[in-house]
Amino acid sequence: MNDGGAAGGQPPARALAQVFHRLIANTGPISLAHFMAESNARYYNTRDPLGTNGDFVTAPEISQMFGELIGLWLADMWIRSGRDEPVHYVELGPGRGTLAHDALGAVGRYGLTPRVHFVETSTALKAVQLDLHPGAQWHHDLSTLPDNGPLLVVANEFLDALPVRQLVRTPAGWRERMVGLERGGLALVAGDRPMDAAVPPAMQALDLPDGAIIETSPAAAAIVYELAGRLAAQGGAALIIDYGQAHSRLGSTLQAVREHRKVDPFSTPGEADLTAHVDFAALAAIAQSRSARWLGTVEQGRWLRALGIEARAETLCRAAPEHTAAILAGRDRLIGEGQMGALFKVMGLAGPNWPDGAGF
Ligand code: SAH
Asked: Considering the domain boundaries, does residue 95 fall inside one?
């Protein structure tokens, strides 16, 4: 595995765990959000984690139908909104570029040939994306995206990788959850600064018991705030797809996955994918506060069925009968209740004068 430096003749990057140990020993516990941001930055920057030989598999890597139906949805929105040009396809965290490949192929059949913009921070994944999309433009964050026309935005399994902050109720009041050192290892500890002022009044009123946890993602909130502001100003539509709940809930959803198995998030920082569930209700409220339209948040299985995944699967099977088993297995994985169909949600956003979205 690439360790982020050895190949270039530089010394290998020091294990991130050691860096955290030294930092915490010198300056005290760090916030969970800091830990998660640094861990995932190292993790994604140094590898392509996708696929059966990697750590996890995402929907576009399961079946081409996923990206195709997303493309269909975007083209439909663009056509019904009046076909404004220039129009930009924007993908946040495009992974291997597979979703963009399938979606752009589909939109091309409807006369839509958008400019392509990728928001990506990983050096390793940028190289993979460049192979499939030599004409794309890369951005480190949303601030440099064009402001001259509607944005057709896709983010699949992107927001779940952004850092979360957790507050925990203790006998002494609310505290931030921090990562400290305990018995020689990294472990969660309660911070010593009072954080009661950071707890929303509605949550204060609930008088939650000791040990209760409130999890938020300021980074996801900031991205949706910016995105919604642009949809309101420039027009466009966005699909945000991730695992999470349509309604806000209490408790920690932090998890780490390595080689397709859940692992302790603190045992090998920078070597496992850290994620948290996306709070779609909170993000919908932020988008609406910026005058963007919230089109709805629905289960992925329901949305893909509404977009016609069953008919698409049949067409693909007829065209390549020898692949029937694989095509149907991919369909079932994407829409099955016990698989991705119910846990994953699709949220649609759009500019104020844009139409309702199919499937919501
Ligand atoms: N959307 C792809 C990949 C999901 S993995 C798919 O469905 O297969 C998460 C993606 O987000 C990776 O491309 C990762 O490099 C990128 N990413 C993670 N944190 C990021 C950040 N803070 N800014 C930009 N991209 C980020």
From this structure: yes
